[in-house]
């Protein structure tokens, strides 16, 4: 028995060293795992449960897409409807403004209410006189054939409806002012006509005076002859 103790000691000593080494390695592994908690495990983790594709909801749904398209169409129609209404309102406002302008212009051409001038019969007389001038000059050369009805019409207008003719002339003059070349030409023609009328009037007055003087001299001579005889 005493002889087997040294043998048991020799056998137990390596076993004790192996156990100590195993414990030390285990503690080292546990310490490493505690130090590195994110270390991948040896075995793969089980895959998560998968849901069938048919049961997964799609976003947006067809109904929601249809609602979005309907909303866009409604907004488009609403915006363009308002624009069309604004355009119609502007056009109607311009039309009313133009109508009022034409009405005021026509009303301004008429003579005053207290004037004895009547537009309707006077305009008929002017039209008849203009046609008569065209009939009179129909066999003349073309400048006379064109200018005679115009001159007769203007003259008859100044005679039958002078106030209306003056208003029409002022309106035409306001329109001609918008085109300086036309207004300048009109002014020159008007000055030439006025100068010709003035000279014609002065010549007529002088001729009448001379005729009156000649008649007076002839009458005086005749009276003297009668007295002598």
Structure description:
The protein contains 6 helices and no strands. By secondary structure, the chain is mainly alpha-helical. Helix 3 (119-136) packs antiparallel against helix 4 (142-160).
The structure class reads mainly alpha
Query: What proportion of the residues is helical, as a percent range?
Result: over 70%
Taking pLDDT < 50 over at least 5 consecutive residues as the criterion, the unreliable ranges are 1-6, 29-34
Profile the largest sheet: none
What is the mean predicted local confidence, pLDDT?
Answer: 78
**CA-based shape:** rod-shaped
- Rg for CA atoms: 61 Å
Rounded to the nearest angstrom, the distance between the terminal CA atoms is 223 Å
Note the total helix count: 6
Record field, number of beta strands? 0
Order of helices and strands: HHHHHH
Instruction: Determine the strand fraction and express it as a percent band.
Output: under 5%
Helices and strands in order:
Elements: H1 5-35, H2 62-109, H3 119-136, H4 142-160, H5 162-176, H6 180-228
Helix pairs in contact: 3-4, 4-5
